[in-house]
Amino acid sequence: MKYIIVGLGNFGGHLAARLTAYGHEVIGVDSSEDKVDAVKDKITHAVVMDATDAQAVKNLPCKDADVVIIAIGEDFGASIMVTAIFKQLNIKRLISRSINKIHETVIKAIGVDEILHPEEDSAERMAKSLQMKGVIDSLDVSDDYNIIEVQTPKRYVGLTISETKIRQDYNINILSLIKMEEKLNIFGVKSKSKKVTGVVTANTVIEEGDILLLFGHIKDINTILNLTD
């Protein structure tokens, strides 16, 4: 797919680099030469451009882009102006980052397809993982359902997925197991990284140190988390 990302700060720059690493074509745009220089070797194309200039924006291959993401995170006015310019160009899919509630109201009125809340989403995930016992990370699927990563309770170590009876007893599905592997980082220091084992079967054995990837209703997840080992 082809992406145009406007705003190459911490969020936009990282997003552009990750999408490029996944094999997509990414054009990154920013008015700051320093920000463009920081990512130019990590993405397909990096362009120094003032995206509030409608004439300059027309030089971008907007019609060929599958998605345009406005990732500007500091300048309220510039974000609104750039969003409005791209909206007028009949982009296939336009996504804009929300800086605050007022900003979100304005870009909704412009008619943006999707709105991002990276800071709020990150804070929400951290708050949830901190207040839920044993939770390493979580993802809201809806208001009522969650996918969570949780350290395996001792009572399940050595059992197969079927033997845990988690689905029968708590209406929760074990989606996968995550194992921690030690690897040397670029500094030659050992660090742990996650390895997902893939789709589990009823006969998959849970080992000590495994992380369970669970899906279920929040109240059911809280029930199982509050049980003692």
UniProtKB/TrEMBL annotation:
This is Potassium channel family protein. One of its GO terms (biological process) is monoatomic ion transmembrane transport. Keywords: Ion channel, Ion transport, Transport. PROSITE patterns: RCK_C, RCK_N. It comes from Belliella kenyensis. It comes from the Bacteria. Residues 148-229 form the RCK C-terminal domain. Transmembrane segments: none annotated.
